[in-house]
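Entry 14. Ran structure prediction on the chain below.
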Amino acid sequence: MTQPGGPERTRYDVVVVGGGHNGLVAAAYLAKAGRSVLVLERQDHTGGAAVSERVFAGVDARLSRFSYLVSLLPDRIVRDLGLRFETRKRRISSYTPVGERGLLVDNGSAAGTRESFVQTTGSDRDFEAWQRFYAMTGQLARRVFPTLTEPLPTRAELQRTVDDSAAWEAVFERPLGESVEAAFADDTVRGVVLTDALIGTFTHAHDRSLLQNRCFLYHVIGGGTGDWNVPVGGMGALTDALADAVRGAGARILTGATVTAIETDDVTAEVRYTRAGAEETVSARHVLVNAAPYELAHLLGEQAEKPEGAQLKINMLLRRLPALRDTTIDPRTAFAGTFHIAESATQLEHAYREAVSGRLPSAPPSEIYCHTLTDPSLLAPELIEQGMHTLTLFGLHTPARLFADDPRGAKERLVDATLAQLDSVLAEPIRDCLATDAAGEPCLEARTPVELEQEIGLPGGHIFHADLSFPYLTGGADTLAARWGVATEHRNILLCGAGAVRGGGVSGIGGHNAAMAVLAVTAATE
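Output, structure tokens:
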């Protein structure tokens, strides 16, 4: 629905293409600064991949359907935009089943974590190494995270900010696998560390391009702490608050508006879109694109290489949490953090090699989150009373290419293999714990990279829109947009989504930085 507040306009200061969280952040900042802003969103609602939805028919349970946790969203964005949004920390960092026991990392008990390391690995050597390693990443987080909402530093400037030669070498200079193998002896411990370098990124621990290092960096610096928190009310609580901020600042949001083309002479841009069967055109001084660079190239009539995602996403609603083979731990504790499945270093490497060779991983690695243990409000009161819980599973090393020839069959085989791998650490099959919807069907939804592209416009299913970059300048800084990491080949068209430098994840950083670039440009020319 068109937002009330006056007649339709054909010219704006800024048009934002895409009403996901980054586009809404940019629109809110710019509208608060007095710019006229139009947001065009293809779907019938805002939020993009950051939504809370009742996935299963007739069941009042809201799931963070596509994106799950919050780490990179700066508090300053929440404060600047006056958002009514909060997150909750998880005391349990992770649990990884190992045989009949498991490795529990408890943020609230160093002694308990040490004991778990000893029981799992046979000594406390890797626990001591763990403490040293994450003290290093914690310091890195405190120094790097504040730079993400400032103009891009040069590589040398960021190195001076880090001010730790060992940390710089481990994260920015050599393949992460080398540092992990030097620090830790146990295969399981190595895998737990490496998952942060691989989730959402199709590569391996010793990739000389350091793609895994870039992924790792963003996973450990969020908020200056590296904590991954549960959004209260689900991920949609954030984007609903952002949409309210956008409208409250006077911007216009049009949903059901599919952008079909963008043209620019670098001074004025025209955006064509269809809505309710009619084609419309609006012009703007700046266009901010909250879509992948690949999609922007398509809208401009240009060519670009399509990225490739490599993850399986499974959403489930359970009647109860499953019992574990490890009888020494309460499932409510094991599932309270990140539950790792088939993610030792060796298993991760084997799954990657199988996928590279064109085969679905025989033992698919994945990790599970149970948000309702931290935020029960995602469930209706009667579901809470019945002991129900949500589970969201993120599978690794399943690139889009594996679904090209037989999308349905490959998906079925992968889901079966993934759940079988989970069952191998449970005392009962996970399917026996699934709730049923209004039609009596099991409450399980799975999405491959191909389906993520079809449903929410992620090219190749790539959740970061493109491969991540280190958060420093790699080219010239001849424009303000380049200095903010949001530049394209056209001076008045900027990236404001996950594909910007320092994009990726639910952060709002791409939107913030694009808005800052626009305000800096207009301030310099007014």
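The two ends are 34 Å apart (CA to CA). Will compare against last week's run tomorrow.
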